[in-house]
Specification:
It is a single chain. Helix content is about 30%, strand content about 20%. It has four helices and four strands; from the N terminus they run E-H-E-H-H-H-E-E. The protein has a four-stranded mixed beta sheet, with helices on both faces. A hairpin with a 2-residue loop joins strand 3 and strand 4. Helix 1 packs across helix 2. The protein is globular.
Length: about 140
Amino acid sequence: QLIAAGTIDPSAHNIFRVAASGEAEQSPERFTTSPAPAVRKALSRATSGESDKEGAALRDFVDYVELNEAFSVVGIANAKLLDFPMDRINVNGGAVGIGHPLGCSGARIIVALCSILAQNDARRGAAGVCNGGGGASAVIIERV
């Protein structure tokens, strides 16, 4: 609304929006890989199903991915499941290297993702966190 009203000039500021979100769950022992289906669900919503078509790949729709690392393997396992290049996941370091702030991991990875999109003049990114107990949440962030 602020952009439409002319209050904010998008060319002078980095402005982002949550394009879609997704939730997924698996059995508790597989919680570390739950972000992958959550990211896919969010992306399907953000692309109105275009990302679900045969031959479509996450890298065709998303420039960067941030995944919260409850353990180091989370980024690696989900990169493989999503078939996404490792050099575009957690590019400034993940939770193992930067920190895993209690109660605000999601906020940390959203801010990191927005910074990465701005630094690289990129348009769209995905963020995913495993929630424990088998669940995961994801959002697709778009630069306006």
